[in-house]
Specification:
It is built from no helices and 33 strands. With 415 residues, the protein is mainly beta.
Length: 415
């Protein structure tokens, strides 16, 4: 996971620094995974064409021109507004359309805490455009660009919100956030979780520019939502993430559908343990169907296409096409009652499907090894990658214990 911290002190005598808050910079469990750090926001670093630095008073800009450019003919924008550029709150029956919001700053303050490296940059408490405690809202042909945190956020208390032809481009964090979850306080205002959000014909590209863990579309504690016919790409971690519970605890994320979306270029050699489509926790009624997912490349390991992470249960995954992944096309960490059928998984370095035999969980008790394998099952039916249209030689779908590798399910898969 990524973290961003300020430097509190520099000690020249031993070439060390003290950070403003703790950060998880530690030896990784995986040998040669390459824990990394970089420094930014100091004038001496401006030594390469295209780099720039704005001094603290905001009155001086240092810039090294790119070849063939003349700064005298260029426009420079340094935003001074941080957080939300606009908010729709405590209202109903509003239509907002044909507006573009540009240029919002970001602050290091929310990252400079112990929770400032949480998955999906969920510690951020603002977005370029926020909808909160509002119902029957339509956002049509809204464009957000060059904002320092999340692009859009449909927060608690919101219902029946439609996003049609919305675009979030070049964002510091994620593109779209629906609902909320820890580490932010939940239910602090006694508002119900977000629900009935319909996102379609929308585009979320070139995010996670500041907060590398930013997610294209993040559905946390939110239910009865539909993401349809959207493009999500060029994020450093996850394309579309659904759910916010890492065990079998009761959840407020159910009946969420991701369909006919094009999700591509996630990871991009930056972070690890990621996927194009990603699910967490018990999620009855949720599905991923008719999506195109490709180019998931981590820095070190686990760049899956469709990734059912911890305790993902009761999810249908069908009629998706997944290819070019630097791990498995489909990966199930642990979970129950998931159906995966009529998919194409191809050109995956880690195999077409993988069921991880790591730690399983049952309510009130954590089991290790094989004790719970009988209860943890996934239904698989593959339509295979090499134009095998009948799928698994016409055999019935196999019901497998989670420990069994899916590469043994179908003889017509190109192994």
């Amino acid at each position: 996971m990524a973290a961003r911290r300020n430097i509190k002190a520099v000690f020249a005598h031993n070439a060390s620094v003290q950070l403003g808050a703790s950060a998880r910079i530690e030896p990784d469990l995986y040998t040669n995974s390459g824990g990394r750090f970089y420094l930014e926001n100091f004038a001496a670093a401006v030594d390469t064409p295209g780099e720039w630095f704005v001094h603290g008073d905001g009155l001086q800009l240092d810039y090294v021109p790119l070849s063939g450019t003349d700064p005298r003919n260029m426009t420079f924008v340094a935003p001074v507004v941080a957080g939300s550029l606009a908010m729709i709150a405590n209202t109903s029956s509003i239509v907002v359309q044909d507006i573009e919001f540009r240029h919002a700053d970001w602050s290091i303050a929310p990252t400079n805490t112990s929770s400032g490296n949480v998955q999906a940059a969920s510690f951020l408490d603002s977005a370029g455009l926020t909808v909160r405690n509002a119902s029957n809202i339509v956002l049509r042909r809204i464009r957000l660009a060059h904002v320092g945190e999340h692009g859009l956020w449909v927060d608690e208390g919101s219902s029946a919100v439609t996003l049609d032809e919305v675009a979030a481009l070049d964002t510091g964090g994620g593109g779209l956030r629906i609902g909320r979850g820890k580490p932010l306080p939940e239910g602090a205002t006694s508002l119900p979780p977000a629900e009935l959000v319909h996102v379609f014909n929308s585009t979320f590209l070139w995010g996670s520019q500041v907060y590398h863990e930013g997610t294209g579309i993040l559905l946390q504690h939110a239910s009865n939502n539909r993401v349809e016919h959207c493009e999500v790409g060029f994020y450093s971690h996850i394309g579309i993430s659904v759910g916010w519970t890492w065990d079998y605890s009761p959840t407020q994320a159910f009946n969420n559908t991701v369909t006919r979306c094009h999700v591509h270029h996630v990871g991009n050699g930056d972070l690890s343990d990621l996927g194009g489509l990603y699910f967490l926790g018990i999620s009855p009624g949720s599905s991923a169907a008719y999506n195109l997912v490709h180019d998931a490349y981590p820095f070190f390991t686990y760049g899956h296409g469709i990734y059912l992470d911890q305790a993902t249960s009761n999810v249908d995954v069908h009629h998706n096409v997944v290819f070019f992944t630097e791990a498995s096309g489909f990966h199930q960490h642990f979970g129950r009652n998931n159906s995966v059928y009529n998919n194409v998984f191809a050109y995956s370095t880690g195999g077409y499907g993988e069921l991880m035999h790591a730690n399983f969980q049952v309510p009130q008790k954590r089991l290790r090894g094989g004790k719970s394998r009988v209860d943890v099952q996934v239904l698989f039916l593959f339509f295979c990658a090499q134009v095998c249209h009948v799928g698994c030689d016409g055999r019935e779908p196999a019901l497998l214990p989670v420990h069994v590798s899916t590469k043994h399910v179908c003889s017509c898969l190109p192994l």
